[in-house]
Q: What sequence folds into this?
């Protein structure tokens, strides 16, 4: 597992970003059937909650989790209202503003304020490797096919929502480049495994 130093400083949560060889036990986790959307669910207990790409809970002991292989795992913790979220952000979810949707749902449900959030953006496919066609590129303001940095775009969306720069950690590491540590859909295609990331109160 890989750990965020920012989130590790919060004594009231546990978290981790899974790697090829190290994943939490999935039966204990709340999870989703991921569909590359901006749909956010609340988790009350372990198990599959529904179809969507972000999972929020305020229940102590219920880990919320997502699975990735190139898409970005993003973990959020509200220090004041004591709620946590796990987000799956590929290009579709990012274009649909999934981190903003997650924060809005936390605001509506728990009264979360963005300045109380701590956020870690885990490893995903890097700018070095993430070439996209013109249709995808246009979603992110480019005029033609090129490379996009999904970590940075999500970082910007978090800041626009009011999350403090000093409360955001981008862990880095490219899932496609780093064969030793990460699964990558672009590299391994249908054979690619998935990495499990989680956070819990
Ligand atoms: Zn790379």
A:
């Amino acid at each position: 597992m890989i750990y965020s130093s920012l989130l590790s400083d919060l004594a009231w949560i546990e978290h981790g970003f899974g790697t090829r060889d190290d994943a939490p036990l999935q039966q204990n986790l709340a999870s989703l059937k991921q569909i590359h959307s901006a749909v956010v669910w609340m988790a009350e207990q372990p198990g599959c909650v529904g179809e969507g790409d972000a999972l929020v809970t305020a229940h102590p002991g219920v880990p919320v989790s997502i699975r990735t292989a190139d898409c970005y795992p993003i973990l959020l913790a509200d220090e004041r209202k004591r709620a946590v979220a796990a987000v799956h952000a590929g290009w579709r979810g990012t274009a649909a503003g999934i981190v903003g949707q997650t924060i809005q749902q936390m605001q509506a449900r728990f009264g979360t304020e963005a300045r109380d959030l701590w956020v870690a953006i885990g490893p995903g496919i890097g700018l070095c490797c993430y070439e996209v066609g013109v249709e995808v590129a246009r979603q992110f303001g480019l005029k033609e096919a090129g490379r996009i940095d999904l970590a940075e775009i999500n970082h910007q969306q978090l800041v626009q929502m009011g999350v403090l720069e000093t409360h955001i950690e981008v862990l880095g590491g490219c899932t496609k480049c780093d064969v030793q540590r990460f699964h990558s859909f672009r590299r391994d295609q249908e054979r690619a495994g998935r990495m499990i990331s989680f956070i819990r109160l």
